[in-house]
Structure formats: structure tokens, C-alpha cells
Amino acid sequence: MALNTPVCDFGWQAVDFELADTSGAQHNLSTLRGANGLLLMFICNHCPYVKAIIDRICRDARELQSFGIGVAAIMSNDPVEYPEDSFDNMVRVARDLEFPFPYLHDPTQEVARSYGAICTPDFFGFNRDLALQYRGRLDASGRMPAPPDARRELVEAMRLVAATGEGPAQQTASIGCSIKWRH
């Protein structure tokens, strides 16, 4: 079932966590944040919405990092029900796609719950003070990629956050598969 993310709760403070990435390194907000902000993305391996944009996510992450934005992805799905989202597959996907950001494993799903993550992909863009400024979509892509010349909404928003500390007032919700919660 496809879900849309809620409207941005401007100023909501990022919740700290401690998660391992696919190489076993531990990360928290202080190790992930950049000088001008932080982008956290809840993604997974199996979702067709994520698969449609994963190359664009990697491209945009590299660009945002050049503007002082830290970037990380978090996988919170239940791998028992969705084996494609297993940790071993996370390692493979991160390696094969050469992720330019840490791919974090949330095995207890506590981080997804504390952030109110709804779907994959779900983007949380924070300013340098770790106050939420963006909860929109990457671009106009859905289950299929948008045209190559589609407006790069996430990049535009996070460049604004890097420059001014504030995100755009108008944001279009992300759409994707629901987080696969444990029963």
C-alpha cells in the first residue's frame, strides 16, 4: 500500500540514536551531521519507489555533501517478512550501488518509530541546529522515475536549508511503500 508522508513539522528536533552501518561502524547524530545540516532517509532494498530513484538519491547525496549536509539512510523494515531487506542484502546493495553515505540498520525499529517514519522513501531534512526543515519528496518520481529534467525538490530544499537554516514553506509529500513493522 502506498502512503504519503505528513506535512513538515518545522522545528521538530532530531532524536539521537546509535546505529551500525553496513560496515559495522557505529553512528549517531554527531557523527552524521554536516556543518550545514543533516538529511536522514528511511529507505529499504525491496520497495519499487526506492528502486525507481536510488540512483538519483546517490547523485543528490553527493551534491548535498558538497554543501555541508551530512547524509545517511536508515533501513527499518522487518527482514523476516521481507527477506530482500535483510542485513546481508543491505551490505550487498550499499556495495553494489556504491552508496556515498552510511546505510544504517534499525533492527529494533525504534529509530523509525521515534522519527514517525511512514514509508520508504521518507526524507527528513534538518538544519545545522538539527531542527526539521524538510519532509518532502526527492522529485516527481513515483513507482517509475520522473523525467531526467524533473525539478530536484530535495536538492533545492536542502541547499536552501544549508544557506539560510530554513526549508521551503511549500513541500510536496513523499510517497512510497509503508514501513514493514514487526507483528
TrEMBL record:
It comes from the Bacteria. Pfam families: AhpC-TSA (PF00578). GO terms for molecular function: antioxidant activity; oxidoreductase activity. Residues 8-160 form the Thioredoxin domain. PANTHER family: OS07G0260300 PROTEIN, THIOREDOXIN-DEPENDENT PEROXIREDOXIN. This is AhpC/TSA family protein.
